């Protein structure tokens, strides 16, 4: 998006502010569907957890996407868009049997990732088709915190336990209608990813009623200038060929699914924050913005890189800054980063702020969550108001404390 447009939005709605450009979301969606246009039945399910504002979910529904959810709350939110429950897939990890049953009752496709619940669910509800999440033990993702397919990972049923799944199916007469994997984020190596898909084909062959294979997600997008990203077009060519071969062999045109989050929304998001203070210390120049890891936690949590530009002075001479927040705790967005010369009250733009940014934001330090704006056909829509003190207090009960307790506190 243009700097001038972003500056106008910061002026109109205040800072800090999240802005989402739906043109970018559509173009990423179209890139994926084009890359896999050789597959007869393709379904893309947007991973709600990446960015879950209901207007974003409605936008995906209008694009024709399904929705990938990881909690019953995400399912309930998704249903509020009016989407057909059959277009929702629920892929939780370590949740209770009760929650899975509640979601199944809503008509949503469920995906089970452990043997103990699979067995009980199959005994109680053999008529409800279930997808199983397989852990192929292939390391495809990036950072160890976001790679979830490795041997020690808590996700999925180990590939070595497929015979056990088959015994459960035999004993309960339940129906396995899908095979799923999600090996983690930031996949760069297509060959490794394809090795995992071959493992899933082998698993799928061992079940008679497969309707779909869900290859999860984890497509990497560029975060730094000149960063490498997953070559979706190349993956499309190679996986399409293998998938179509599998369908022929299996004797049925099954559906190929993906459930991308980051790929679809990361680059569409910009986070705008205002510089409150420029502080020169003996060693560093700090730019303190009116935000912190309460609003954008990825740098502190995953050492994630977010490109930062000074949209108030884009032509300024580059200088080195540490960009930090206003939280009473270390909250560094960037260290020793080259940015066009910063003055107090300038607006900084954090790029790639669509995925896992607002959705991970908190009220730490009792700060308000930022407002969110969505751009559709060049027009801006406020899709979430900035919070107020009433929101902070909303679920807090002000209780009548015994007088004595209060006195003790005062004298202590
Ligand atoms: C988080 C998650 C995704 C989305 O991953 P991205 O890296 O954002 O594309 C997909 N599927 C499951 C099961 C997930 O937990």
UniProtKB/TrEMBL annotation:
Keyword tRNA processing present in the record's keywords: the answer is no
Top-rank EC class of the record's enzyme: lyase
**Which Pfam families has this protein been placed in?**
Orn_Arg_deC_N, Orn_DAP_Arg_deC
Q: Which domain of life is it from?
A: Bacteria
**Which BP terms in the Gene Ontology apply to this protein?**
lysine biosynthetic process via diaminopimelate
| Alphabetical list of CDD domains matching this protein | PLPDE_III_DapDC
Against InterPro entries, the record matches this protein to: Ala_racemase/Decarboxylase_C, DAP_deCOOHase_LysA, De-COase2_C, De-COase2_N, Orn/DAP/Arg_de-COase, PLP-binding_barrel
Residues recorded as binding pyridoxal 5'-phosphate, renumbered to this chain, are: 218, 356
Residues bearing N6-(pyridoxal phosphate)lysine are 49
SUPFAM superfamilies referenced in this protein's UniProt entry, alphabetically: Alanine racemase C-terminal domain-like (SSF50621), PLP-binding barrel (SSF51419)
Q: Which residues form a coiled coil?
A: none
- What is the catalytic activity of this protein? meso-2,6-diaminopimelate + H(+) = L-lysine + CO2
Q: Which residues form the active site?
A: 328 (proton donor)
Q: Which residues bind substrate?
A: 298, 302, 329, 356
Orn/DAP/Arg decarboxylase 2 N-terminal domain boundaries:
23-266
- Listed cofactors: pyridoxal 5'-phosphate
Q: Which family does it belong to?
A: Belongs to the Orn/Lys/Arg decarboxylase class-II family. LysA subfamily.
Q: Partners and quaternary state?
A: Homodimer.
The job of this chain, per UniProt, is described as: Specifically catalyzes the decarboxylation of meso-diaminopimelate (meso-DAP) to L-lysine.
Q: What is this protein called?
A: Diaminopimelate decarboxylase
Native species:
Polaribacter gangjinensis
Tell me the classification of the organism that encodes this protein.
Answer: Bacteria, Pseudomonadati, Bacteroidota, Flavobacteriia, Flavobacteriales
**Which gene does this sequence derive from?**
lysA
């Amino acid at each position: 998006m243009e700097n001038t447009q972003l500056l106008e939005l910061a002026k109109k709605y205040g800072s800090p502010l999240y802005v989402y450009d739906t043109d970018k979301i559509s173009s990423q969606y179209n890139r994926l569907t084009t890359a896999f246009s050789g597959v007869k039945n393709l379904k893309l399910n947007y991973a709600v957890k990446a960015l879950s504002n209901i207007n974003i979910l409605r936008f995906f529904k209008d694009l024709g996407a399904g929705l990938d959810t990881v909690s019953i709350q995400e399912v309930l939110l998704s249903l509020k868009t009016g989407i057909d429950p059959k277009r929702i897939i629920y892929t939780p990890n370590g949740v209770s049997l009760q929650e899975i049953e509640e979601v199944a009752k809503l008509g949503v496709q469920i995906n089970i990732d452990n043997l103990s619940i699979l067995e009980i669910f199959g005994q109680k509800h053999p008529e409800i088709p279930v997808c199983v999440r397989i852990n192929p033990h292939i390391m495809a993702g990036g950072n160890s915190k976001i790679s979830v397919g490795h041997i020690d990972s808590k996700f999925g049923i180990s590939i070595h336990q497929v015979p056990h799944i088959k015994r459960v199916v035999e004993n309960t007469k339940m129906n396995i209608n899908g095979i799923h994997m999600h090996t983690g984020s930031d996949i760069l190596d297509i060959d490794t990813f394809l090795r995992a898909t071959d493992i899933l084909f082998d698993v799928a062959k061992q079940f008679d009623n497969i309707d779909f294979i869900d290859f999860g997600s984890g497509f990497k997008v560029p975060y730094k200038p000149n960063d490498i990203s997953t070559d979706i077009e190349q993956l499309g060519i190679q996986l399409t060929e293998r998938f179509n071969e599998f369908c022929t062999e299996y004797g049925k045109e099954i559906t190929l699914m993906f459930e991308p989050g980051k790929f679809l929304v990361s680059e569409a998001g910009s986070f705008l924050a205002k510089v409150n203070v420029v502080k020169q210390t003996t060693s560093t120049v700090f730019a303190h913005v009116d935000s912190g890891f309460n609003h954008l936690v990825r740098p502190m949590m995953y050492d994630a890189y977010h490109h930062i530009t000074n949209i108030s002075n884009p032509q300024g001479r580059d200088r080195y800054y540490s960009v930090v927040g206003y939280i009473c705790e270390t909250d560094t967005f960037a260290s020793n980063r080259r940015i066009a010369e910063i003055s107090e009250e300038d607006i900084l733009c954090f790029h790639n702020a669509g995925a896992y940014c607002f959705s991970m934001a908190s009220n730490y330090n009792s700060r308000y969550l930022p407002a969110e704006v969505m751009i559709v056909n060049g027009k801006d829509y406020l899709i979430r108001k900035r919070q107020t003190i009433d929101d902070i207090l909303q679920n807090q009960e002000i209780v009548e404390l015994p007088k004595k307790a209060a006195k003790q506190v005062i004298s202590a």
